[in-house]
Amino acid sequence: MRIAVNTRLFLKGKLEGIGWFAHELLSRMVLQHPEHEFIFFFDRPYHKDFIFAPNVTPVVLKPQARHPALYILWTELAIPHALKKYKADLYFSPDGLGSLNTKVPTCITIHDLAYKHYPQFIDKLHKWHYARYLPKFAKAAKKIVAVSEYTKQDVVQQFDITPEKIDVIYNGAITNYAPLSFAEKQKVKEQYTGGEEFFLFTGALHPRKNIINLLKAFVQFKRRQKSSIKLIVVGRMAWQFKEIVEAKERMPYKDDVIWTGYLEVAELAKLTASAYAMVYPSLFEGFGIPILEAMTCDVPVIVSNTSSMPEVAGDAGLLVDPTSPEDIAAKMMMVYKDEVLRNKMIAAARIQKQKFSWDISAEKLWQTLMSCLPEGQQK
């Protein structure tokens, strides 16, 4: 059997949420099913590290799908032509870009419908493309993967899709994420904060991540607590970040905030495991991988009470109103002052994180993909 996959987000040194989702699931599936051929569709020259096994055939399709107009050429011309040329039995798109111009059974992943809930944070062309094509891709697909129960219900309600068509397949935490010893943590803290404890936020920086309110909350925390604790913000400036840059420069206590930019996963995992707590007050998430990564490292999490985040954090997280810097600051003070609470959160996280496994998710994805095929082809 030939399984074609959209791997356009496999960018060496630039993997983020959706890219990691695809990477972790596909790297496992390819090795677990050597009897099948996987055709990886890239939209630019690829790195050899993404060719996980001999049963992977890499194909570069033009044009580079980095703009809504080019998405259309890629999904409606390049992809259908390649599916026919390589005689694919099945097409899997982990980033939601399906195709309306093929009869090959298709499975797409929908990570979130943020464009529906926060359209002001998306440029007009991308918003137009999402609104015009994502509902059609969802209806045309044989199966849909959602990364949380919240996202599944959102797709059902927003697109009028039957729930039976959607399988929930969670993200996992990459194996780099694990607790560190006291000595290892101290070494990381010496490197980044001169040995001081720190709160941590990680993620691509744009308005939906709510960085402005995080900074306001940190200022309130510092004014009330008179602590030497720092805040580390990890992530690239993604889009609509002008206000973030301005707040960064004018905020009080700005010398206590460390901005690292994008970090490779090995370094980010060490930093995460060394944090006093993860503070993740995002306005909206389809899943929220940094929450799970922190829990995997025995780090308490403070997360928003919206969308999928309570589902991911479970009883292990302190929930906040992301629109209230006062609430975020109050929860930061609770974790900082109450060591008993902090230890309870860590213990709860050790239980909660067991719900999420890339190995389990890879097996579930395989079953979902097989269910797209006629009964005689399922293997």
Looking at this protein, list some descriptive labels.
379 residues, globular, Rossmann fold, 16% strand, 13 strands
Query: Which CATH class of the largest domain?
Result: Alpha Beta
Q: Helicity range of the residues?
A: 40-55%
Poorly predicted ranges: none
Mean pLDDT reading: 95
Total DSSP E strands: 13
Q: Helix/strand/pairing class, anyone?
A: alpha/beta
Gyration radius, to the nearest Å? 21 Å
Q: Can you walk me through this structure?
A:
- The chain is of the alpha/beta class.
- The protein folds into two domains: 2-172 and 358-377, 3-Layer(aba) Sandwich (Rossmann fold); 182-355, Rossmann fold (3-Layer(aba) Sandwich).
- It is built from 14 helices and 13 strands.
- It has helices spanning 17-32, 68-85, 114-117, 124-140, 149-159, 182-193, 211-225, 242-250, 265-273, 289-296, 309-313, 325-337, 339-352, 358-371, and strands at residues 2-6, 37-42, 56-60, 90-93, 106-110, 143-146, 166-168, 198-202, 230-234, 257-261, 277-280, 301-304, 317-320.
- Strands 3-2-1-4-5-6-7 form a seven-stranded parallel sheet, sandwiched between helices.
- Helix 5 links the parallel strand 6 (143-146) and strand 7 (166-168).
- Helix 1 crosses helix 14 and helix 7 packs across helix 12 (325-337).
- The longest helix has 18 residues, at 68-85.
- The chain is globular, with a radius of gyration of 21 Å.
TL;DR?
The chain is of the alpha/beta class and 379 residues long. The chain is 44% helix and 16% strand.
